[in-house]
Amino acid sequence: MKLENKNTKMRQFAEDLFVQELDALREEDKKEVKPQNWNLSPKAVKKFIMGGQASGVEISQKYMGDERLVEIAIATLLTDSALLLVGEPGTAKSWLSENLCAAICGDAKKVIQGTAGTIEEHLKYSWNYALLIANGPNMDSLIKSPIYNAMETGTIARFEELSRCVTEIQDAMISILSEKNIAIPELNTQVYAQKGFSIIATANTRDMGIHDMSSALKRRFNTVYLPLPKSIDDEVEIVTKRAKNIAHTYQIQADIPAQELIKRVVTIFRELRQGHDIDKKVKFNSMEQPLSTAEAISVITGSMAMSACFGSGQVNEKNLAISLHTTLIKNNEEDSIVWVEYLRQMNKRNDDWKSLHAQCLDLCS
After folding, report:
1. What is the pTM of this model?
2. What CA–CA distance (Å, rounded) separates 242 from 248?
3. Nearest 5°: phi and psi at 110?
4. pLDDT in tens, 136-179
5. Which of 44, 87, 162, 248 is close enough to 226 for a disulfide, judged by CB 3.0 to 4.6 Å?
6. Do 273 and 250 meet the contact criterion of CB atoms below 8 Å apart?
7. What string of DSSP letters covers 305-349?
8. Cα–Cα distance for residue pair 327/198, rounded to 1 Å
9. What is the rounded distance in angstroms from the CA atom of residue 311 to the CA atom of residue 218?
């Protein structure tokens, strides 16, 4: 039987995914004073991120962490400083950035994905060369970057993985953040940032050494560090909620695993991150790769997909073992050795764990 799905987009931006919540917040927020070019007041933006009620609509919690960090992030966007979200992989930096943009300006699509191949044109502007050759340089042949569009409209642009960009690109960011304009020498003009303009950048602590940001660039940002979840219970809650959302979006016909199974996956990830068991009695080597909450979510959703396609729709330990093996090994021989040693050391745990460990060890042989 073919699954019905009215929405054919593989990925929806936050302003589309949570359109009912945003409408309810705008209705409740009508009488509140809003900063220029903001759709919601700072308090309503916080409610959108942290959850609550608005006009009889349940506002889902988007970020499960310290609300003070969210308050700092929102307050930063009221000033002339840009916002830099820093953290381990999987600490919801991009997710928080996207939802802040959706709440503040109703548009999270002005985004630059930072890579080693990012060039200055991606930050400023480029040209439609067919029009450029035909008509010469003019505004019709100019292709505006996301930052250019954000400046012009007084909205927010997102810059993902800033520390992965080469030094020349980071230097170009200093000029944009300092001068709040982009010069177009070919047209002898420039675009000035309107009130409400800002940039939310993200940086991965695992990549900070690739192209370390200069102190001059760091001064242009207010930096907010997003930590990994403090407790197992917090991480289990995050993994459960995100796995449910992903399963719903992609119509995975499988039940969410029992909380005990999710807790076992989260425990394995936390122990391999920390290099010791939860009770700090057994030590072992840590893996090279980052074992983030995002990858724990991938294990759960992967096991659900396996169960939906080739099983009963009920996730079992075999599904989890296959998904764990695929996620943790990734053809890395050293990580494979660490994983096998971990399983052998921790195989003495209580009987409830032995079946999962045995399934995992079988896949390693």
Report:
1. 0.89
2. 10
3. -80, 85
4. 999 999 999 999 999 999 999 999 999 999 999 999 999 999 99
5. 87
6. no
7. HHHHHHS-SS--HHHHHHHHHHHHHTT-HHHHHHHHHHHHHHTTS
8. 36
9. 51
